[in-house]
Design goal:
This protein is an alpha/beta fold. The chain is built from 10 helices and 15 strands. Strand 2 and strand 3 form a beta hairpin. Bound molecules: zinc ion.
């Protein structure tokens, strides 16, 4: 795990990137996190990004560790991923319902970064065929049990000729080192007139504004990019997605996770209660008009 490495070893693995969206070197530093990390804001395009960041190879190595999902400095800390299962499933169920309302479901689905496959499982009634990609071997194996076809790795594991009616990347793009190239890859695998849908922590949300540098989505070192609807929709449109619109994405959390963040203890029976938080995530969808 990265947290156990010496400071010298970590600094050898750091890079100081230009804006990952527009390539500008002009930046300001609105948030200083634990040394050496800061959140930079590109003064040319308004995108927020981690500066410096771990080189991508070092980050990829961390994702491949089975311990990533079990917590620790760069995993799903505070409570295990499995303990959050019921809240995540409720979140995905509501999200899929919102997609169906806008006629974005049906046909074939690709989910990039599917984790344990909770969304793929909840998507069963909405799609004829479900495919996922996941960097963790263990995660991919569990996701496969949902009956979906799951590849270990990123979207490059999907053969070039395969196209999907709907491509989803939920809580993924904040981990991506080259976001424009990533969205282009999503588009390349979307059917003409199909839809590309991206959801990510909302840098413009009231929760982030209220919490400042203590916002839980400032997850270091794995979250390297921070979008709001403006920067996300602009990125998608520039890559070739048309008619980009915002989707509601209410997120359920176990009450116990929220109270633990404030250092409070509550009876464990109450800890599993779900609390809906509306302003944590920004989601956008658009049509791929390429033919
Ligand atoms: Zn920029």
């Amino acid at each position: 795990m990265i947290s156990q490495e010496s400071a010298a070893n970590v600094s050898a693995k750091l890079e100081y990137p230009a804006c990952p969206v527009c390539g500008s070197d002009r930046r300001e530093f609105p948030f200083r996190l634990g040394h050496p990390y800061t959140i930079a804001r590109c003064t040319a395009c308004g995108f927020y990004y981690l500066y410096p960041r771990l080189i991508e190879r070092a980050m990829q190595e961390a994702y491949r560790q089975p311990s990533y999902y079990e917590g620790g400095a760069c995993g799903y800390a505070d409570t295990s991923y499995t303990a959050q299962e019921s809240a995540l499933r409720a979140t995905f169920k509501r999200f899929l319902h919102n997609l169906a309302d806008r006629r974005l479901t049906g046909g074939t689905l690709l989910e990039v970064g599917c984790g344990y496959g909770y969304l793929l499982d909840e998507a069963r009634p909405y799609f004829d065929h479900r495919v996922g990609t996941e960097f963790s071997v263990e995660g991919a194996e569990i996701a496969r049990a949902t009956g979906a076809e799951v590849f270990v790795g990123g979207i490059e594991q999907i053969s070039a000729e395969r196209k999907f009616d709907c491509i989803l990347a939920v809580q993924v793009i904040e981990h991506v080192y080259q976001p424009s190239a990533f969205v282009k890859q999503l588009i390349n695998h979307t059917q003409p007139r199909g839809h590309t849908i991206i959801a990510t922590p909302d840098m413009g949300g009231v929760l982030r504004k209220a919490m400042g540098r203590h916002w839980p989505s400032f997850k270091i070192p794995e979250h390297v990019g921070y979008f709001d609807f403006r920067t996300l929709s602009r990125l998608m449109e520039k890559a070739g997605v048309s008619d980009v619109r915002q989707l509601p994405y209410p997120h359920a959390f176990p009450l116990g996770l929220i109270t633990a963040k404030f250092g409070l203890n509550i009876p464990s029976a109450l800890g599993c209660l779900k609390v809906w938080v509306p302003a944590t995530t920004v989601a956008a969808y658009g049509r791929v008009s390429r033919d």
